[in-house]
Amino acid sequence: xxxxxxxxxxxxxxxxxxxxxxxxxxxxxxxxxxxxxxxxxxxxxxxxxxxxxxxxxxxxxxxxxxxxxxxxxxxxxxxxxxxxxxxxxxxxxxxxxxxxxxxxxxxxxxxxxxxxxxxxxxxxxxxxxxxxxxxxxxxxxxxxxxxxxxxxxxxxxxxxxxxxxxxxxxxxxxxxxxxxxxxxxxxxxxxxxxxxxxxxxxxxxxxxxxxxxxxxxxxxxxxxxxxxxxxxxxxxxxxxxxxxxxxxxxxxxxxxxxxxxxxxxxxxxxxxxxxxxxxxxxxxxxxxxxxxxxxxxxxx
Length: 300
Description:
- By secondary structure, the chain is of the alpha/beta class.
- The chain has one domain: Aldolase class I (TIM Barrel).
- It has 10 helices and 12 strands.
- The chain has an 8-stranded parallel β-barrel, surrounded by 4 helices.
- The longest helix is centred in the first third of the chain and has 13 residues, at 47-59.
- It is globular.
- This is Ubiquinone biosynthesis protein UbiV.
- InterPro entries: Peptidase_U32 (IPR001539), RNA/ubiquinone_mod_enzymes (IPR051454), UbiV (IPR043693).
């Protein structure tokens, strides 16, 4: 199996993003997804900046995929999407059906995790439009994935979101701006203050969700490093790590070690717990409530 790095889901400073990808170029990650997928107001990197990062990563031997925004709300969002679709150098990850429409008949593309594909006829239809890879919806269980793997189109690659806070939902409203009593159109870019998102606690004080602008994530960190052997047996091609503000290169190293020496999985699991911003979870994979954790290992 290969390791991929998903797009940065948070709003980081421009120089921090460049430095992050300089470090990623030296890691064992095989595939890197680039671009702003959450909020169109995040402009620290423009389209040409992302292409520049993409070219550097490609020269370092990485497969680069440009990711499209999940929730399009304006004509300017559509212009950016058209630029992605018109590029003839890098594959594109489609995160809504409008992107699929624009990418049909062009370079083979990737069906992102924000397009819900839960049955093989839907996957076959997307394959006919030119999709070469699909990312399993984060709520899908291993049982459903096993059935999909048996019925999926030939040559369709399967990627599983294997580490990171779960991207659960998008809204036209910005919850981070609302938290600061600001209108969305004058948010003062408060997301820059939360490199790993803004944790939302329950009334009992337990971390529950993370506010990331218009995106809602799980507070717990999805971690499937213990499931890599089973994924390999099911024919999963790629496991995805979602970037976090700290220790991402160390997390990639642990996944690489576990892939190449499955006997180290439990030790790697314990290492990852030291670097996660909150406790782990793997409930969806096992067909249970998403926040459940089967191993009992928590963040330190």
